Amino acid sequence: MDRWTGGIGTGSPWRLGQFVAVGAALGLLACLAPGTARAGQAPAAGAQQQAPFYLGADISFLASPMRGREARTYQENGKPADEMTILEHHGWNAYRLRVFVSPVRQAPDNSLENTIPLARRIKASGALFLLDIHYSDTWADPQHQEIPVAWRGVSFDSLSSLVESYSRDVIKALKDAGAMPDWVQVGNEITRGTLWPVGQVEEPGDTAYLPPQPYDSTLQWAHLTALLKAGVRGVMEGAGSTPPRIAIHIDRGGDWLKTKWFFDHLEAAHVPYDIIAESFYPEWGHGTLEQLVTNMDSCAARYHKDFLVAETGYGNSHVQNNPDMMWPLTPAGRVQFIADLINTMKAAPRGIGAMYWAPEFGAWNADGSPGPVVFVLDSLQALRARPASHVPAPAGP
């Protein structure tokens, strides 16, 4: 039986002892609407999931010189508008911006200078602002974590000092401009470390991206955790009396074992952070929704941290014979995925939000009008309580 014959509202490919459904035009889910709490604040001690749940978007392309789809003219119902305004009209309440070390190489020019104006607009709107610091002058991801050209050839102590001073200067500049971030990522998708090869670590089972050999695990982890601590110190120095929440971001949303491997090292080194941030893309083989729930349950039990899907989306698969591609590659399939993801995260412990990466490349129609993903909150049904039989996955050693 084709479970997608009716599009949104016909059901979900995922079950967790209950039926998760999406119905059209049912109004905003109350606990997904922006609340009165300060953007980004932590839940009260001992409290369960607190409103608001953040549905956000990484709109960094809008901060760089325009080209291609991100330069399109946006409109809704025939009236000119802009991407951020339209998203806000439909309940989106958080935005993420990346910043590269200047001068930027071979990437969109998301310099601090170009980022500040859009950051100020985000703060003025009342939305939550997540700053994603790439400690690189080009893309930083699981396949690339290049030391900025201007920082190369220095000692480890000097590199650590550069990370701290750069983090401080970025945050202070944003604060002085009236655009203090609510949350800050110290690094982007740093599953294999950052500032390679100095802070590069060897992921279990990985043979494609190896750190210096012979591998000294103790030394490489000491480097990575020291660099992260330097970044956090710098953020806090720049923030002064308005400290943001710190997020550590890897790309293993549905992989509890790799998540445990990574964050156990951070815990052992006493790296200070508040949010476990993970990418969750089915097209990159990041797992199923059931596996995401297992990861979230286990993280909550073991680390007692909030959990953010810092990047997500639904596009063409980059993995052959990919079992995670459970939704059709259509506008209806994309919105069904986002709806299922939101409902999944709200049912699991300490899920605080999801960030759709670069909506310019999938959430809009060719004429600049909003596609179905933009309306996802307008279509959600309230999620029934999880059955009592559901218990968190073991988080033991």
Written description of the protein model:
This protein is of the alpha/beta class. It has a domain at 51-327: TIM Barrel, CATH 3.20.20.80. The chain has eight helices and twelve strands. It has helices spanning 83-89, 112-125, 156-176, 217-239, 256-268, 289-303, 331-347, 376-379, and strands at residues 54-58, 74-76, 79-81, 94-99, 128-133, 183-186, 193-194, 199-200, 245-250, 275-280, 306-312, 351-357. The strands form three sheets. An eight-stranded parallel β-barrel has the order 1-4-5-6-9-10-11-12, surrounded by four helices. Helix 7 (331-347) links the parallel strand 11 and strand 12. Helix 3 packs parallel to helix 4 (217-239) and helix 5 (256-268) runs parallel beside helix 6 (289-303). The longest helix has 23 residues, at 217-239. It starts with 53 loop residues before the first strand and ends in an 18-residue tail after the last helix.
